[in-house]
Structures
1.
Amino acid sequence: MSVKLEKYQPGAILHEAIVGGFRANGDNFNAWCRRHGITPSVARNATFGQSRGPAGKKLLARLIEGAGPDFVEHTYRRRIGEHVRDYQKEAS
């Protein structure tokens, strides 16, 4: 499966969806990173959008694949929807 990164806005919601994907699979973000030779702080930079170049995008796609792209997408959509509803309540 090819991950379409343009549908995701890097940040806390995406990071939490990815971390949640690893947990749902009985894994751990930091452990997955270490097994794949990735420094966890570098991976966090990719999920939070602090590394948006080609290498950061490639790493982000690997993280989403590793966490489970269907889980990440579902969780991300749900959390974005919650955020929008909360924002609309505060704006009213």
Note: The longest helix spans residues 69-91.
2.
Amino acid sequence: MEEPQNQNQPNKPSNKGMQNFTRYSGIAFQMIGIILITTFGGIKLDKLTGWKTPVFTIVLSLLGVFAAIYVSIKDFLKK
């Protein structure tokens, strides 16, 4: 007598596609979060200093982009 196959096996192609979707969309939201937090921090620091040139916004937003890229590459390489 054959055993019934489990419908929720992680090896099925349909489940693999959904796993990839959730993984990559999670990485995208993580990147957006990092960039938004660092940019928001830069805006707040620029308001505190009162400088005309938004130095902290520029520096921290670029730092956030590089940090987001680093984190996403690290997550892509991890399996």
Note: The longest helix spans residues 13-49.
3.
Amino acid sequence: MKTTVEINDALLEEIKDLAHREGCSMKSLLEEGLHEVLRSRSRVRPYIWRDASVPGALTAEAANMTWQEILDLSRGDRL
């Protein structure tokens, strides 16, 4: 299918230069680029947890501990 697309002049020159260096067509480079964009945007993105931390919630003692040390501290004498 044929279509018309407006491309920034500087970008078009880069595409032409790359196509010439690699011995391929501009069409193939453009198709490859568009396929890559479609692949990258269709990948499942991991869920990003919102920051639910509470400022000042840690004691000065716990502020420099690892998670394991904090967990051990929270268990107290139950170990």
Note: The chain has a mean pLDDT of 88.
